[in-house]
Predict the 3D structure of the following.
Amino acid sequence: MSAGRAYKDKEELYRLIISQLLYDGYQREALTLIETIRPLPECPPSSRLLTVYQKGNEIDKEERDARQVFSGNSCTGIDLEYESDVTLTSPDASHYETVYVTSHKEASKCSAFSPDGLFVATGSVDASIKLLDVEKMVAKAASAANAVQDLPEQHPVVKTYYDHVEEVCIICYITFNVFVALHDNILINLSEDTQKITELLNCLPELFNGTEDTDSCLGAALQAAHKCLVNSGGRITVFQTVLPSIGPGKLTSREDPNERASKDVKNLKPANDFYQRLALECNGQHIAIDLFMLNKQYADIATISPAARYSSGSINSYYGFSATNASLVEKFEFDFRRYLVRKIGFEAVMRVRCTKGICVSDFHGNGFVRSTDLLALPNVNPDAGFAMKLTVEETLDVYPNAIFQAALLYTTSKGERRIRVHTLMLPVTGSVHELVSSADVMAVVGFLGCMAVDRSISASLNDAREALINAVSDCLVAYRDKQTRSSSFNSIYVPPSLTLFPLYILALLKCIAFRSRISTKLDERVAALLSIKSRPLAYTFAMIYPGLYSLTDLLPAEQAYPRPLHLSAAYLSLNGAFLLDKGDEMILLVRKAIPISWCLNVLDVASFNNIPQTGMIGLPVLENEQSSKLRGFIEHLLSNRVHHAPLLIIRDDSPQKNLFFDSLLEDRTESTSSYPEFLQYIQKIMNN
């Protein structure tokens, strides 16, 4: 029995015990066990455990009686004249009658009824499958006997599938009881079967081109893939476009469009633990699950994402994806190409060790915490980010330095077992001033963001927002209290290393993950939350606090790159063009009074009015110095980035201009405060 199967059996046993205790009136004992086990969903009162016990006793008694019968060695063989007392329910073959006849183009070799008996499927040598409605077949026979004309919707053949490329030899309903034929040998070798893989990829665009079936059995597909990889390990790549609607792990929509702008954001937690339990089983077999979410509508990323989070996979979201969305198509193509060619480590574990008196109390990132300082990672890739919370449990006065060591043990794609070790030594100090002066503000804000994500999921979004604000005020109060007695309570004292700390926290509060009272689709918010926890710090910061650059006055060649501007409309001149770098996308805003020469040299259009209202994707390649410098600057921004950022060019009066102006974080909006107002609010909290 596998570890995952044993875990499920124990979980079911505990649920039966709780239900039996509630049924028998032992409320206190049941509540004690519920607090320890925390079963999901809740256990209703039931006497099922007693029934199982009674049936088990009956089976044991029958087995004991059977052992007594055969223990005397008196049996000489099989009694061929023995007549079974089992009553057969099926009629004799002579009593069967033909109800409905349908045909394939060639011979039919298999058929199967659905578990509920409502449908029957037949498979043929011509590679087709017919699905028939049993009730409609019976009704068809009755109407034929009574000479009643049938309506098209009464036709027994529900659908004919032409999705297979070879003859259908077996049919099995696997929606709830997953069955994989020959799963030990179903995988093929890439180098030996390149032609078969190429043929499959070539026929995929047409394979389901005419299908009208929008149901998704993601849970069953993942279970089947797990069975295929259970003996070898590896990774499962999932492309999901809709909400899983049938089979194990099926879900129902939990998003209410009317609550997208509410202050209290609901349904950030998973609806059930099916995908988490599946991920833990995969983790134990060194299997990672990578998600590419290409959904246009709600797909419940909050519930599906644990499949990747606990198996050390990656979560890539392209909300609103369609073949006509050139920007998202370009981004997905770039990201997926990198996904296929980037280096990867298998069967990895990460351990973090510290000086005595310091311990690791929490991990952030995709993986399973096997012990306090050990992270199990079936797959590890260079695009993943991790954060650790360290707790000082003992005084460190006896040590002049504290040492931290992170070790990653993994297997390369060539089968080589390697270990990579990073060691960091930092001085120990008792001075708050020295501690604060050496703080890395980006690391501090990034880690607070990870903690806020956990608070949003476990408690509420409002609690997470309050915690971020309190982190700023508490830090500044502690620093102020260590200053001279003449410090004024009407001023905010910020150490040089944390000058931008309040600004970055405001940016975090305004980003799509934590913003409040602004219409935000639930899947987009959840994807942003998970991105903060699992992506490298530089990528997270580009999403939190984008870079803003003026492109109309590029510097000479020796100083080719412009400096970033404050995220405020006050810095946007009417005759300029400005680039907003948001990490996963870039937006170039062209103002109304832009010079005609700039439009000609950079965009290859006659004037501002010739820029399409729908925008442009990417810059044209033009043979002039201004165009070369601008394209070189954008290539510089993308040079060290692991995720692609497509460039969208929009006009000042475009319907899409809010994509740009909503990112000007230092300005006030209808539902958010400006940076000066936020500082005043922080000062008010500090004084109280």
